[in-house]
Amino acid sequence: MERKELIEAIFASQITSFSLISESSNFQHLIAKNKQGEGIFLVWGGNDRSQLNQEIYYQIVQEAKKAELSTNKYCVYARLCSFSTANFEFKKKHKKILKDLGAE
Predict the structure, then answer these.
(1) What is the domain range of residue 51?
(2) Which of 14, 31, 32, 84 is the most interior residue, by most CB within 10 Å?
């Protein structure tokens, strides 16, 4: 499965309006921002490398700062999460999205 396909599926499943971040922006995890200036992030390296951990979280914080986005809240899509803090919302990739894309 390609990262771009997963990004498209995430946006197709949302009712909230997001602004996509250009692929040429060189962000590893930042894929969009919402109307409140909060970042939408995707942790994806294929089926086996999609876990949000402390190291990835710190990368996300740096990307939000670089993009001049809010650092009060992060929306993070990942397959698994082994790290928690009060200012991010973990969204497990929906099994339906993954199944539709052939990744489950």
Answers:
(1) 3-100
(2) 31
